[in-house]
Amino acid sequence: MTKQLGLSRTMVLSGIMCAYAISLFTVPFFASLSDRIGRRPVYGGAALFSAVMAFPFFWMVNTGSPVLVWFALILVIAIGVAGMFGSQAAYFAELFGARLRYSGFASARELGSLLAGGPAPFVSGLLLIWAGGKPWGVAGYIIALSLLTAIAIYFGPETYRTDIHADKTGTRG
Question: How many angstroms separate the CA atoms of 83 and 86, rounded?
Fold first, then answer.
């Protein structure tokens, strides 16, 4: 935002901090919601919301209007990211039996971060160059990753009513 669009660092940082301050409330809200309606609807819904917001985010940011930039940041961070984070820890922990929970959770989370998050800045930079400085390639990349997440959640098991103490064979661990 600061390099490509020339927006004020203070304005952008303030918007990010505001979005994360709101996330202090929305992460627990989405965690609580996932306790009531399930991990998959909340996590998948937040992933789909992120996909839907990819282009509007860049449209709002490209206006340079502080109000719209802040609004865009609040939407994607306090709803999209917070919705996934709010349900993710419980979902990942519940995917594995008691004997494999620590290594399974850590492997799933860190492997996903390594494969999707690690190259994201480089891929985004390349897409930005490829698109002549326009963010549309990056928006497409966000949509692809968000839809991949939503598809994985759709085909994954619902876990919120499972016995977290049981292992895969159903015995207590």
Answer: 5
